[in-house]
Amino acid sequence: MATVDPAAKRKRIARLSSIREIVFGVQDGILTTAGVLCGLSGAVSQRNQVILAALASTAAGALSMGAGAYLGTRAESEVLHTEIKRTREEIVEEPYVVQESLLEALAKEGVSREAAYRIVKLLSSAPKALTATAEEKVYGIAVGMSGDAIADGLFMGIAFLIGALVPLLPFIFIASLHEGLIAAVATTAIALFAVGYFTGWMAERNAIRAGANFFSVAVGAAVAGYVIGLGIAKLGGLSSVAMP
Amino acid sequence: MLKPGDTAPPFDLACAIDSKIGRLRLGQIKSGLIVLFFYPRDFSFICPTEVIGFHKARVDFETENAAIVGVSVDDAQSHLKWAVELGGVSYPLMADIGGKIAAAYGVLDERECVALRATFIIDAKRQIAYSVASRANVGRSVSETLRVVRALRSGRMCPSDWQPGQSFGPDQQKY
């Protein structure tokens, strides 16, 4: 009979938790770079300047997003551990309150009050089990909840970089600015649809609808970026045609 | 919450007593004093210390002609099981389903639909002689309740922290 290996499942769930950083990084990389390309193409006529600015934006974005994810996860982890420490002190100082809270939590989940009382009483004979259960059931916190800060930072940074390359590569390889821009927008839309489709599929919901959501966000960001770029050029007295 | 001097609202509720389910009315209690204590729920972790505490002190309360009655919003069947779980309870546990009596005494926590942790001592005229309530996480003192019962029974001016055997107020007059 096939059995589920809890350790393997735990590892799989931990790996899956990185999906947040990957999806966020890819999405942000695609959108930011596409926005930069569209915005600068509206304001600047020289292709090389646009590419250099987009490359600089990509490098800065990848580093910034990676560092942000690292610092964010580390801060979350530190706060979580402090909270867990405080909760454990409360459990030692006020066991009745924790027992009562756990009993109420179980009762709210449909366990009869009498059964919940017996479960908590049984758990109370093993303080570690009581602590772990109370942390999860009562306070909604668990030691394994905090992610790996270094892994999160790396995933986010690399994902941003990969996402940024999606609109950037066609723009670099197609000589015409306008055609390159159209190709960048097209690959952006396709890639965002693909990311949306993938997340929808992972979440077991309507993948096409999820892909369409991403697509509309992409088109909205690109159009908005282009319009803002044109507006800035006009405000600064610049003309995309007159620029050398 | 009712205060000393208020008339005790009558009750007529199902209760668990002596491993059986019965009914209890305020009018059928003959003791001079009644210690009526409300507690939030059966099968909890603070309440048993009080329920057991009153059970252990029952002889002392009987000596003072004081009946003990416990009340919660649980049904009588739950009270029976709870009493067995605690190793037996020698006084009635009344089933105030819906909390009508708790509301009448002004100690119903409407948000949680349970009684507050409140104690009333009802005198021979069936008026409130003493009332006290605390937050759900703070258990009440059985010995303090007994001290108040003895002080009330003395009928004298009792100074702070008075204990049986100690002198009464300066005028030595009946209250």
Helices and strands of chain A, in order, run as: HHHHHHHHH
| β-sheet strand percentage of chain B | 25-35%
Described by the principal axes of the CA atoms, the overall outline of chain B is globular
Q: What number is the mean pLDDT of chain B?
A: 90
As laid out across the biggest beta sheet of chain B, the strand order is 2-1-5-4-3-8-9
Please state the oligomeric state of the protein chains shown. Answer: heterodimer
Biggest interface, chains and residue tallies: A-B, 12 and 12 residues
Number of helices of chain A: 9
Strand tally of chain A:
0
The counted number of beta strands of chain B is: 9
Average pLDDT of chain A, to the nearest integer? 82
> In terms of per-residue confidence, which ranges of chain B show pLDDT below 50 for 5 or more consecutive residues?
none
Describe this structure in words.
The complex is a heterodimer of chains A (244) and B (175). Chain A is an all-alpha fold and 244 residues long. Chain A folds into 2 domains: 17-74 and 147-236, no CATH class; 88-145, no CATH class. Chain A has helices at 6-16, 19-43, 47-93, 95-108, 113-124, 127-137, 149-173, 177-202, 207-235. Chain A is elongated. The model of chain A is unreliable at 240-244 (pLDDT under 50). Chain B is α+β, with helices and mostly antiparallel strands and 175 residues long. Chain B is built from 5 helices and 9 strands, in the order E-E-E-H-H-E-H-E-H-E-E-E-E-H. In chain B, the strands form 2 sheets. Chain B has a 7-stranded mixed β-sheet. In chain B, strands 6-7 form a two-stranded antiparallel ribbon. In chain B, a hairpin with a 4-residue loop joins strand 6 and strand 7. Chain B is globular, with a radius of gyration of 16 Å. The mean pLDDT of chain B is 90. The chains are: A mainly alpha (244), B alpha+beta (175). The interface between A and B is medium-sized, with 12 and 12 residues.
